[in-house]
Specification:
The strands form three sheets. Strands 1-2 form a two-stranded antiparallel ribbon. The protein is mostly helical. The two termini are 30 Å apart. The protein has two domains: 148 residues, no CATH class; 72 residues, no CATH class. It is 45% helix and 7% strand. 26% of the residues are buried. Strand 1 and strand 2 form a beta hairpin. The chain is built from seven helices and six strands; from the N terminus they run E-E-H-H-H-H-H-H-E-E-E-E-H. The C terminus is likely disordered. Helix 1 packs parallel to helix 5 and helix 5 crosses helix 6.
Length: 228
């Protein structure tokens, strides 16, 4: 049994990405061309439609949103996807990828190339985890601009749950912080971590990451048993 390089959970398939993370990566890749198009209305600052009164600007605002311009520019969404496709083709000893056409056409072509290679990426590529993580982050950044309310519903990933059961097994489920929440709660085991413990939680998560293959309960873990 292997461990998925994206979610860090055991994977019985023996690949580099578990089926769930591979499916999610395919969905994110498929979403990128539409997301690229949806970013266009946000290129001009203030295009989100604020109607409140504002004080006079001290200096003239930028004519475009730097973040959106970066994502829609040659080195943004399309650049990231093309770089990964080039890396995949190089690893598979295929002909180099040659981008042609408009940015939109290049993006669709690069996404299509990566989708064609996803079965190999998931099972045979050691860089699959880094690739999937960057595609996930790219999609999240774009979605946070286009649909910030929807982005907030999932919360922010803070690591994996370090709670230990009576048998000495670490939970390991993904922990997420919801904006405004008073607790970080594990959706799998139910262990809850109040704000006073968050700094220790970060330390313990890092500790578990370094010692995930070690049997037994880490010394620091005992203090978290009372947090659930």
């Amino acid at each position: 049994m292997s461990v998925c390089l994206l979610c860090d959970q055991p994977d019985e398939t023996g690949g580099y990405l578990c089926p769930g993370c591979a499916t999610a990566t395919v969905r994110r890749l498929n979403a990128l061309p539409s997301l690229y198009d949806e970013l266009l209305p946000f290129l001009t600052p203030g295009s989100g439609g604020s109607t409140g009164r504002r004080s006079p600007a001290v200096s003239a605002p930028l004519p475009v949103s730097e973040m959106v311009l970066s994502l829609r520019g040659p080195g943004g969404v399309v650049g990231v996807v093309e770089d990964w496709l080039a890396a995949v083709r190089d690893a598979r000893h295929m002909q180099p990828f040659a981008p042609v056409g408009s940015v939109e056409a290049r993006l669709r072509a690069a996404v299509g190339g990566l989708l064609d290679n996803m079965p190999w990426i998931s099972v045979s590529w050691p860089d699959a985890g880094i690739f999937a993580e960057e595609i996930r982050d790219l999609e999240r950044v774009g979605a946070s601009i286009v649909d910030p309310a929807g982005r907030g519903e999932r919360g922010t990933r803070v690591g994996t749950c370090p709670a230990v059961d009576d048998g000495g097994v670490i939970c390991g489920a993904v922990l997420r912080y919801q904006p405004g929440a008073k607790l970080v709660v594990c959706s799998w085991c139910g262990c809850a971590f109040p704000p006073a413990t968050w700094q220790g939680l970060r330390t313990l998560i890092d500790h578990d990451a370094r010692n995930e293959m070690r049997n037994g309960i880490p010394e620091e873990a005992e203090q978290w048993q009372s947090a659930s």
